[in-house]
Specification:
The structure is a single chain. The chain has 12 helices and 21 strands. It is an alpha/beta fold and 484 residues long. Strands 1, 2, 3, 7, 8, 9, 10, 20 and 21 form a 9-stranded mixed β-sheet that branches. It has a 4-stranded antiparallel β-sheet with strand order 14-15-17-16, covered by helices on one side. The longest helix is centred in the first third of the chain and has 21 residues, at 102-122.
């Protein structure tokens, strides 16, 4: 019996027969796979899409339906924001930090406004209005929100701030499901052949070219011939503990993985034929219930009573920097004017109260003169409207001097810190899977969270970057595969 797996491809000469033949085979039916299917079909290719679950969805359907788009959309212009391609692209590069892929940032920066129109053309609805304030996501059907660290240091110094989160018109949270529904309907209307309950097992090679895949259906392996290419759209590896321990062990400090069967299969398939997994240590995490906005007026300190972040930046950046701190928890300090009780499900507890910061310090059992000195320095500068240590900006920069005072405990093990992985296969801006030399692997394409894409650096994440990445580069993958 010939051995093959996600770690070892099957040679075409050993394929006993073909159960399916198509131009493009797509593995995974979230937003990435749907967008790849749409573009491949529009390019005239026959497409079969294989999904391991019983229907579409993936992590995309669990999201808020927010896509990070800038450079001058109609919603931005109507709200009075003059966002340019240059500023938008500069922010994308800053948000990728040390993991920056200049080619992807520049391509998406140039094309984002047209991508927004493409989404509308597929039937994705947008109300078009702007919702001001600092929030997690709209609870009404508003479109444009601030969804990153655009107005916070160090980002605002190099890119003019503008809100860039564009949310599908949908009442309440959870717009990802209706977004995927729209894209699925479009893919089906174009004649995409869809097979569900089909789990990818291995890639099929002919020399150095990818010519198909093995999928498991009804407890039998089925052999798929893809004449033009295979597209991997399978998500990350947040539910693969072995991969996390090997590549991303810091995720074990937090407790609430987000995804849908994200077991790293696409990354392993790509690696089995020479693909190069990169930035595999990167992950996103957030305890977003530090919102409402008044809590951003507070001060975060570690167990040593020291600040570590400008609290006006995106809640995911705050949380990711928090997880870097010593010990298993951080504290959010508030005065009575800023305090609001967090929801019970957030797992955020009141750790200490006091009429002075010295009393809060003592109740937290910190050495005398640590937290109290931190707050004395912070308040003295905040009254002057400046923050020389972390450059927190007015109007979120406020002194915390109205007693009583409170310290909220965010515990990495017991508070709700959701997380997902960001590392994945190295791909070109055209979604070709690249080997370690930077050469494209013929016939293999990938997009979304099984790649290292636009959301490449956990400390620079903005809400909507994942859906921006998977929808836009999913399109690139479909087009590239169709013309391969």
């Amino acid at each position: 019996m010939i051995a093959y797996s996600q770690h070892k491809p099957l040679e075409m000469a050993a394929v006993p027969h073909w159960d399916f033949e198509t131009d493009v085979a797509i593995i995974g039916f979230g937003a990435t796979g749907a967008c790849a299917a749409i573009e491949a079909r529009e390019a005239g290719a026959d497409v079969i899409l294989f999904e391991r679950s019983s229907g579409s969805g993936g992590a995309s359907a669990l999201s808020g339906g927010e896509i990070y788009i800038g450079g001058g959309t109609d919603a931005q212009k109507a709200a009075g924001f003059d966002d340019t391609v240059e500023d938008f692209t500069a922010y994308l590069k800053l948000a990728q930090g040390p993991c920056v892929d200049d080619a992807k940032c520049e391509l998406y920066g140039r094309e984002a406004v047209r991508h927004y129109q493409w989404l509308k053309d597929q039937g994705v609805p947008y109300r078009g209005n702007y919702l001001p304030g600092k929030l997690i996501e709209p609870t009404d059907d508003s479109t444009l929100i601030w969804s990153g660290s655009e107005a916070a240091a160090p980002f605002y110094k190099s890119a003019k701030p503008a809100p860039r989160g564009h949310v599908i018109q949908h009442m309440g949270w959870g717009g990802g499901r209706p977004l995927v529904d729209v894209l699925e309907a479009r893919a089906r209307s174009l004649g995409t052949h869809i097979e569900v309950d089909a789990r990818a097992q291995a890639l099929i090679t002919e020399g150095d070219r990818i010519v198909g895949a093995v999928v498991r259906m009804d407890n039998k392996d089925r052999f798929v011939r893809a004449h033009k290419g295979v597209v991997l759209a399978t998500g990350g590896f947040v539910f693969n503990e072995a991969m996390r321990r090997k590549y991303c062990p810091d995720t074990f400090r937090v407790n609430s993985p987000i995804g849908d069967k994200d077991d790293g299969i696409g990354i392993e398939l790509g690696a089995s034929v020479g693909g190069d997994p990169i930035h595999m240590d990167q992950f996103f995490t957030t305890c977003p219930w530090t919102m409402p906005e008044t809590h951003a007026n507070g001060v975060f300190v570690n167990i040593q009573g020291q600040r570590f972040i400008n609290e006006d930046c995106y809640h995911g950046r705050v949380s990711r920097c928090a997880v870097d701190q010593p010990g298993g928890k951080v504290y959010l300090l508030l005065d009575v004017a800023q305090f609001q009780q967090p929801p019970d499900f957030a797992g955020i507890s009141i750790a200490a109260t006091g009429e002075t910061w010295d009393e809060v310090e003592a109740e937290l059992e910190m050495p005398a003169g640590t937290l109290s000195a931190t707050m004395a320095v912070y308040n003295a500068h905040a009254r002057e409207g400046r923050d020389p240590l972390f450059d927190k900006q007015v109007p979120i920069l406020k002194p915390l001097d109205q007693s009583p005072f409170v310290a909220l405990e965010l515990n990495f093990e017991t508070s709700y810190f959701s997380f997902f992985t960001l590392g994945g296969l190295k791909t070109s801006a055209q979604a070709e899977v690249l080997d370690r030399s930077g050469k494209a692997i013929p016939g293999l394409f990938a997009a979304g969270r099984c790649t290292s894409g636009l959301p490449a650096w956990g400390h620079g994440y903005s809400s909507g970057l994942s859906l921006a990445d998977c929808t836009f580069f999913g399109r690139e993958a479909g087009r590239s595969a169709a013309k391969a």
